[in-house]
Write a structure and sequence with these properties.
The chain has 179 residues and is an alpha/beta fold. 25% of the residues lie in helices and 16% in strands. Strands 1-2-3-4-5 form a five-stranded mixed β-sheet. Strands 6-7 form a two-stranded antiparallel sheet. α2 links the parallel β2 and β3.
Length: 179
């Protein structure tokens, strides 16, 4: 078991950087261990994820969860992530929680929580631009998909025939749905 629950010193960005470097070194060693290729490493974090609505998240611990989750995805069955809330009741169920084969889980108030997809309730979702802004769009850098809310018709430029809301423009070098 690898305990990454201890707080790292300094402001959140500095503590997060130190924690990620620390965990990355240990994950690399575990994955590279050829003597025990089937050994499973349990990584413990504290408040690295919001497992329930309103859960506080430690910004220095959150990157640890992301790093370990990526490593677990690349090495199925070798890494298990457990996020603790600091309660004794959660410590009491830790052994039972890791005895299963769940790759990631959170312990809150002595309850074992695992991520699951479920259907949402039917209903319209409305995205409203911020007050005072006539139109806007959200773009992701690096050529990822663009998610957009088109501006009002009077402000629209000519739409690229290759563009649709939710996809990039087809013109070379363009990352916008509006050309």
């Amino acid at each position: 078991m690898l305990d990454a629950t201890a707080p790292f010193e300094g402001p959140a960005p500095v503590a997060a950087g130190a924690a990620v470097e620390w965990l990355l070194d240990r994950l690399r060693n575990h994955v590279a261990d050829e003597e025990q290729p089937e050994a499973r490493l349990v990584v413990l974090t504290r408040r690295a994820v919001a497992a329930r609505a309103g859960d506080p998240v430690d910004l220095a611990a959150a990157p640890l969860w992301g790093l370990a989750r990526s490593a677990a995805t690349e090495n199925p069955g070798r890494i298990t992530l457990v996020d603790l809330d600091g309660e004794q009741s959660s410590q009491d169920v830790l052994a039972a929680a890791v005895a299963g084969d769940e790759p990631q889980l959170a312990l809150r108030d002595g309850r074992i929580l695992v991520p699951r997809l479920r259907r949402t309730e039917a209903g319209a979702v409305t995205v409203v631009p911020p007050e005072g802004v006539a139109g806007w769009r959200l773009e992701t850098p690096g050529g990822s998909q663009t998610i957009c809310v088109p501006p009002p018709i009077r402000q629209r430029r000519r739409r690229c025939p290759m563009a649709r809301c939710g996809s990039r423009c087809g013109r070379p070098g363009s990352t916008s749905a509006m050309c």
